[in-house]
Amino acid sequence: MKPIIKTPEQVEKIRRAGEINTKVLDAVEEMIRAGISTENINQVVHKKTLELGGIPAPLNFEGFPKSVCTSLNDVVCHGIPSEDVILQDGDIINVDVTTIVDGYYGDASRMYCIGQVSPQARKLVDVTKECLELSLKAVRPGGYLNEIGAIIQEHAEKNGFSVVPDICGHGVGLDFHEEPLVFHVKRRGRGPKLEPGMIFTIEPMINAGSPDWFIDADDDWTVWTEDGSLSAQWEYTVLVTEDGYEILTK
Ligand code: MF3
Ligand code: CO
Ligand code: CO
Questions:
Q1: For 145, what's the count of Cα atoms within 13 Å in the CB-facing half-sphere?
Q2: Is there a domain that residue 244 lies in?
Q3: What residues are neighbours of ligand 3 (ion), with CB under 5 Å?
Q4: Are 108 and 235 in contact (CB under 8 A)?
Q5: Are 192 and 144 in contact (CB under 8 A)?
Q6: Is residue 217 part of a domain?
Q7: C-alpha 69 – ligand 1 centre gap (Å)
Q8: Residue 3 domain-assigned?
Q9: Which percentage of the chain shows pLDDT scores above 70?
Q10: pTM, full prediction
Q11: Is the CB of 236 under 6 A from ligand 1?
Q12: Residue 58 Cα, ligand 1 centroid: separation in angstroms?
């Protein structure tokens, strides 16, 4: 299916949603520390989003019960905030915020290191961000979507980590999840040709051990690493511009 090309008016609206989404992630950055619960993060995200004139997209999305995803240590993604999950010194956590502003969507996530984390955890967090940043050089008119995953996989594996192959980035902006799927691993074929006005997320999930994962049978959302190894993720919403890319969530 063809990726959607956004009009300049739509780009402007999505840029605004991205800016507010960034402010919400900044608010999380200010409060996150050992001793708080992931439900505390949910409350800050919910309150800050409304205060800035947005709506938290995760809340009630396909039955998701909270306003943000909080994915701790061996959770790959889609962790549900809970009063019972208390952040500890040494934890790594992904906070994934998606904001609807005036009907348009911005989607981004960051990793936070709580107190002193192990060198291995720090490396995983850093390499995952490098994977995302390096992949941006593939985002330009005339480039091909599948260059992104090839760059991510090469950098992750060079560092001894594995890429979750089957959870993808996505077109975003007019809706939460649109065409195209954005793979984070090398694929057969080049994929769609990139054109100015395309907007999609890149959101690699990188595991310290095996790339395998399973969905929690009790909550039907939380994605855990199969082997209990750590997992990290960073996400941007990016626009293909006339001469390259613009990160709409930075
Ligand atoms: N924000 C996630 C993404 O990057 C999707 C979360 S769906 C939810 O695509 F329902 F869990 F919020
Ligand atoms: Co997201
Ligand atoms: Co996303």
A1: 28
A2: yes
A3: 107, 201, 203
A4: yes
A5: yes
A6: yes
A7: 7
A8: no
A9: 99
A10: 0.98
A11: no
A12: 6
